[in-house]
Amino acid sequence: MNFSVIKEIVNENDSIFTIRFDSVMVAKPGQFLMVWVPGVKEVPMSLSSIGDDFAITFKVFGESTKKLASMKKGERMFYRGPYGNPYPEPEGKTAYVAGGTGLASLLPLIRKYKGDVYTGARTRNDLFLLDDDFRIATEDGSLGFRGNVVDLFVKEEDEYDTVYVCGPEAMMRSLLDRMHREKHGNVYFSLERLMKCGIGICDSCSVNGYRVCKEGTVFTYEQLKKMDEFGVYRRSGSGKIELIAKVQ
Ligand SMILES: Cc1cc2nc3c(=O)[nH]c(=O)nc-3n(C[C@H](O)[C@H](O)[C@H](O)COP(=O)(O)OP(=O)(O)OC[C@H]3O[C@@H](n4cnc5c(N)ncnc54)[C@H](O)[C@@H]3O)c2cc1C
Ligand code: FES
């Protein structure tokens, strides 16, 4: 277990926070940490910044993320990692498609390689770290295109040679089903499943036998097309198989 001293906690909006910290770790875009929240559990968190400045950016959902959001500058944050295979480098014209906090995982790539960013959420209050150039979708129409980010992106899909995707699994499944990339281009999806060990031992994150923490988190379009559990079934905290609600 490593630790870093927290440099800053930024409140991006009502429920989304960024923790900035110093570290000497070697990490690549797309990798994640298992952050220890004392007294609660460990939570997987993508690195939203890599380099001179390291950061995680997260939405408050339950006890762990609530506790992380209440940490203070100067406190120590304990973690293991980085884990997971990074995103491959882009070729040609590049798009990034983010649903909700999936943007956090894509930010180090976006900063390094540039390209067109499509980001979506239920409402404008769920969006964060927006840039003037981002193409925005909100389901309630409170900002940008009214609808989901999949609807916004699929119209433009053919413009791009490389596409990176991260967001809720149902959103990524919907995009996978609506894209037509068999003949051209590189498409990479980063999966965020329930994780316990983060290192390939417990099987809580597996999809069709692939451990997301070890063989992923990044999978290609072609790999996911063969995985019938992707976006359909997942494991609950108790290990029970449960259905994932579909995106319409
Ligand atoms: C590889 C990986 C990288 C991740 N990176 C990030 C990141 O950069 N930023 C980030 O905000 N989250 C990220 N997550 C998700 C994050 O780990 C969870 O949100 C976190 O574990 C929630 O813990 P909790 O104790 O606060 O909530 P819990 O008590 O575990 O959950 C509370 C409730 O919220 C629901 N819930 C939890 N997480 C989510 C979610 N992501 N979407 C929708 N509902 C949810 C649960 O089903 C439950 O009903 C990542 C997950 C993985 C696997
Ligand atoms: S989290 Fe344990 S195998 Fe992936």
Structure description:
The protein is an alpha/beta fold. Helices cover 18% and strands 33% of the residues. It has a seven-stranded mixed beta sheet, sandwiched between helices. Strands 4-3-6-1-2-5 form a six-stranded antiparallel beta sheet, with helices on one face. A two-stranded antiparallel ribbon has the order 13-14. The longest helix has 12 residues, at 102-113. FE2/S2 (inorganic) cluster (FES) binds next to loops.
Features:
2 domains, binds FE2/S2 (inorganic) cluster, Rossmann fold, six-stranded antiparallel sheet, binds flavin-adenine dinucleotide, alpha/beta, Elongation Factor Tu (Ef-tu), domain 3, 248 residues, 17 strands
Topology readout:
Blueprint: E1 2-11, E2 16-21, E3 32-37, E4 41-46, E5 54-59, H1 63-69, E6 76-83, E7 94-99, H2 102-113, E8 116-121, E9 135-138, E10 145-146, H3 149-154, E11 162-166, H4 169-178, E12 186-190, E13 206-207, E14 210-211, H5 212-215, E15 218-220, H6 221-225, E16 233-235, E17 241-243
Parallel strand pairs: 7-8, 7-11, 8-9, 9-10, 11-12
Antiparallel strand pairs: 1-2, 1-6, 2-5, 3-4, 3-6, 12-15, 13-14, 16-17
Bound molecules: flavin-adenine dinucleotide and FE2/S2 (inorganic) cluster (FES).
